[in-house]
Amino acid sequence: MEFHIPEHRRRAARGAALLLVAGLVVLGRAAHRAELERRRGSATALLALGASPGSRLDLNRAGRDEIMLLPGLGPRRADLILARRRLRGPFPSPAALSEIPGLPQNRIEELLPLLIASPRPEPTSPMRLDELAQRIARSERVRQLVRMALEEDLGTGDVTTELLVPAELRGEARIVAKEAGVICGLELARMVLEVGDADVEFSSARRDGDRVSPGDEVAALRGRAGHILSTERIILNFLQRLSGIATTTRRFVDAVAGLECAILETRKTVPGWRLLDKYAVAAGGGTLHRLGLDDQILAKENHFALARRSGLCTSFAGALELLVARRSSGMICEVEVETLDELDAALRVGVDIVLLDDMSRDEMREAVRRRDRAPRLKNGERIRLEASGGITLDTVRAVAETGVDRISVGALTHSVKALDLSLLVDWTDR
């Protein structure tokens, strides 16, 4: 059987389809305008921060999401800026944005008050905690992580709280430490309430990096009882993980106290949490390794194997010479070695840092002796030695006593135990 659709119904259907398409276009334009307004607002905030040179956006350290917040810069130009930084090293000044193709001079002049271009920090110098905190506060990626955490937990709403807790009920709650440790993540807790639009005031007499004992108050919350209940788990999840990392880091740092040896983390972080996990390491007194693959060169066994297989070089020493010759100006170069012969090759070429992978303590002591006899770098510094591989809290001091300059410990972030914190409530009807 064939169905006949009257012409007037066909015209009506076509009209409805056109209206739907027009509506989608309008919605798309509205979303685009909203995104532009968000960026303008973020740019205005950056301009306000720009009154203080220490608060301007650092062109040599900013990530992609931070660069995109600047007025007139979208994803494509942010990628061009990062590519230029990778290939040619740090920007000597914000005015060097003139090297970015298609970026007008008048736009560059608008950006200059918002930017600084600091020299790339030495890897053994700890990045300041307040500098990292500013970077987290500006990071759209971190705010998106908070939004995802809230959406994941709340879904369409906290049905239990909505059924049992009157909307007008207000109260107070305290976050209390149940074990000794180092607190970290207080501003993330505040961000959860801000992003979640919670009618709750968050306060704390503590700062990230402070030690706490069992029973110590970490923070206080005052406001709508339902909002406190609905955000409790997200707040504690951030605080407990980051405090656990800071606490573990502090134990390693304390274990090598009195020795000239820095404790570093690795890139073994939870996906999406990189900046937060490394911030927690800094809060515990650790020294930051590279934030990402674009921060510094770190050549390992697989890099060398593929370089030889491709025909770029025929030996380990040849690969090192190629690496040093090709690196951009100002880019730190670190290489992994597994034997003392490979160490000798790295010392001859003059890389900045040598990673001693899974060496015994006797081998580490010999490595230090050979390094001390080797010529210094052009800047007068000696080549630094980093120990890595299976180092625990029980063995870290003995490793540091071999004379290495730094020890990297993946367990700081990949095997962390959350610090035990609890939220205690005191509901009132006011």
User: Approximately what portion of the residues adopt beta-strand conformation?
Assistant: 5-15%
Secondary-structure element order, N to C: HEHHHEHHHEEHEEEHEHEHHEHEHEHEHE
Average pLDDT over all residues: 85
**Strand order, sheet with most strands:** 8-13-12-11-10-9
Q: Which structural class best describes the helix and strand composition?
A: alpha/beta
Uncertain stretches of 5 or more adjacent residues: 1-5, 32-54, 121-126
Record the SSE blueprint.
Blueprint: H1 7-49, E1 57-58, H2 64-68, H3 75-88, H4 105-111, E2 115-116, H5 129-138, H6 140-154, H7 159-164, E3 170-177, E4 181-182, H8 186-195, E5 200-203, E6 211-212, E7 217-224, H9 225-255, E8 262-264, H10 274-283, E9 297-299, H11 301-310, H12 316-326, E10 333-337, H13 340-349, E11 353-357, H14 361-373, E12 384-388, H15 396-400, E13 406-408, H16 411-414, E14 421-428
Parallel strand pairs: 1-2, 8-13, 9-10, 10-11, 11-12, 12-13
Antiparallel strand pairs: 3-7, 3-14, 4-6, 5-7
Helix pairs in contact: 5-10, 6-8, 8-9, 9-10, 12-13, 13-14
